[in-house]
Specification:
The structure holds two protein chains of two kinds. Chain A is of the alpha/beta class. Chain A has nine helices and 16 strands. Chain B contains five helices and no strands. Chain A: Keywords: DNA replication, Nucleus.
Chain lengths: 431, 126
């Protein structure tokens, strides 16, 4: 137990600070107006961005092979085509099928993963589409919406036989200066699910107390003093949806509906009083459904938004802390990939999205997305140093390396309400 | 439904005895811009839908369609700049410019001057 004398003797512990800059301007919907446009515009923007990139990489890959469009393919002639992949899936739920078949009162049981051995890939550009075959491009790995370059030739049956494939690869990474000075920690937590039956208020309170330095002895507190920022990656509340059945809510129900958010606000005030905190919306939070999810509104957090350390961020979230660039989502992109493709673990999905240079390739096909007309904000321009995804089953992490020497730390943040685990990232160079 | 004989005329459109618009009527509308022959081919004809005029699926009713509109329609149709529906022409031109496709500058000037159609032909129709 610290006494007054010893604390004044040792001096006060100061929390470390890191220079923060938010790069979320591409994810926030500001000047866009919905004029009834369809998703063809965002697919065009994506194809154009990726194609320009892939064309610039072609001379290093296969310089002597001619590039052509789908419509310019000649049978038997070896060439390279660039386009968007479309995966034809037999088991993918289709709204038309649901209506053509007899409608039953109970929803049909859905498989969790919609893959089938008969799935095949089709490559499409503005001029046409062609079925892709061969052993190089596995349908279980790819999803609709990925733009790749394929080297191969057209067969007699009108399919494209693939000999080799090139993806965008990891983008260029801005080099970090060699670490000078002190360690700084960043805390990542997600899936707080306040208001649900699985969340235990004591667990979160313990975390808050530890972060703010109210727990432990001098040694523990000095560890807590190194924490520079807390990132809450989605699913912070679970609203009792049973109340939302379309009828007017009585005042008691309104109170019950709002309780989880009030509790979250109280906890966030405790954190924001001492340390900068970023909160991102998730699939269950009171934010818009389609990606990019807009920041949670300030009015939901009346007491914590009074602090300038409190920051409401969009999902996906891209920011920089002292020259370290961090990018991540609340999990919708990876969960959607899991439904439509196969991998050994979640980190492999994360790695694939980075190598495809696109955070959410299945948007807008199976993942809700805003119909942008002039850009595709999910295109990854520069390689982040830390790439995270929230609301996963368990904590996993890996370091991946790119062709130009890029190093990225991939992190799966587990659901706090189920596991009680938060992730601490140390911001210094791993030599 | 039983109707009296005199009402039957109300059912079908009366066909004009003289074919289309006569010269006398054209005089009164002479204050309008004089139309180039290829666009006004329906005038003076009593054929309702001559085959040659159904170029985009309906008869050519855009009678004040000039070369500026023609240039803009070619811009709409150019695949390199992406789909034309769902965006105003100027927005599509600006996007082409920002994506580095170098669209012709004179189309940009034409659209910014503002006296031409802001949307592509199919906007609101498809």
């Amino acid at each position: 137990m610290e006494t007054e004398d010893s604390s004044s003797e040792n001096g006060l512990l100061h929390r470390k600070q890191a220079l923060y800059s938010s790069l979320d301007s591409c994810f926030v919907i500001q000047k866009e107006m919905y004029r009834g446009q369809q998703y063809s515009q965002i697919y065009f923007a994506r194809l154009h961005l990726m194609r320009t990139l892939l064309y610039s990489l072609l001379p290093n890959w296969k310089p002597h092979i001619q590039v052509c469009t789908v419509i310019g393919l000649e049978e038997g002639k070896e060439c390279i085509i660039v386009g968007t992949l479309y995966k034809h899936m037999k088991l993918k739920p289709s709204i038309l099928e649901e209506y053509s078949k007899e409608r039953s009162a109970t929803p049909l049981v859905r498989p969790h993963n919609f893959m089938h051995p008969d799935d095949h890939l089709i490559l499409e550009d503005e001029s046409g589409r062609i079925k892709v075959c061969g052993d190089v491009l596995l349908p279980s790995v790819y999803v609709t919406g990925v733009v790749v370059a394929l080297h191969g030739k057209e067969t007699g049956t009108g399919d494209f036989w693939v000999e080799d494939v090139m993806e965008g690869g990891l983008p260029h990474q801005i080099e970090r200066p060699i670490k000078s000075g002190e360690d700084k920690y960043v805390i990542f937590v997600s899936g707080l699910d306040i208001g649900s039956s699985t969340s235990n208020p004591l667990k979160f309170q313990l975390l808050v107390d530890h972060i703010t330095g109210h727990l432990g002895d001098k040694k523990e507190q000095s560890i807590a003093a190194k924490i520079v920022r807390v990132i809450i990656a989605g699913n912070s509340v679970e609203i009792p949806r049973g109340l939302l059945n379309g009828q007017n809510l009585g005042s008691k129900d309104q109170f019950t509906l709002f309780e989880p958010i009030k509790e979250l606000d109280i906890q966030l005030t405790q954190i924001a009083a001492g340390i900068p905190v970023d909160i991102m919306p998730g699939p269950n939070d009171p934010a818009n459904f389609s990606l990019p999810q807009q920041p949670l509104h300030r009015c939901l957090f009346p007491s914590s938004s009074a602090y300038n350390t409190f920051r409401s961020c969009p999902n996906p979230h891209l920011f920089q802390l002292d020259d370290v660039s961090l990018l991540g989502t609340s999990g919708q992109n990876i969960d959607d990939l899991e439904k439509y493709s196969d991998a050994n673990d979640k980190l492999e999905f994360l790695e694939r999205t980075l190598r495809w240079r696109h955070v959410a390739p299945t948007a807008p096909n199976t993942l809700g997305c805003y119909p942008f007309t002039d850009r595709d904000p999910f295109f990854v321009e520069t390689c982040p140093h830390v790439y995270f995804v929230g609301n996963q089953e368990k904590y996993e992490t890996r370091l991946i390396k790119g062709a130009e020497g890029q190093i990225v730390r991939l992190i799966c943040i587990p659901r706090f309400s189920e596991t009680g685990v938060a992730v601490v990232v140390i911001l210094w160079m791993q030599l | 439904m039983a109707t009296s004989k005199s009402d039957m005329k109300g059912f079908f459109k009366q066909k004009k005895k003289s074919g289309g618009i006569t010269k006398a009527k054209a005089k009164s509308s002479s204050t309008k811009k004089s139309l180039s022959p290829k666009r006004s081919a329906t005038y003076g004809s009593d054929i309702t839908q001559p085959a040659a005029l159904i170029s985009h699926g309906f008869p050519d009713i855009e009678n004040d369609y000039d070369e500026k509109e023609e240039v803009l329609r070619q811009f709409d149709m150019n695949m390199a700049y992406g789909p034309c529906l769902g965006m105003s022409r100027l927005a599509r031109w600006e996007r082409a410019k920002s994506l580095g496709m170098n669209p012709p500058e004179d189309i940009g000037h034409l659209l910014k001057a503002g006296k031409v159609g802001a949307e592509c032909l199919w906007e609101g129709r498809v």
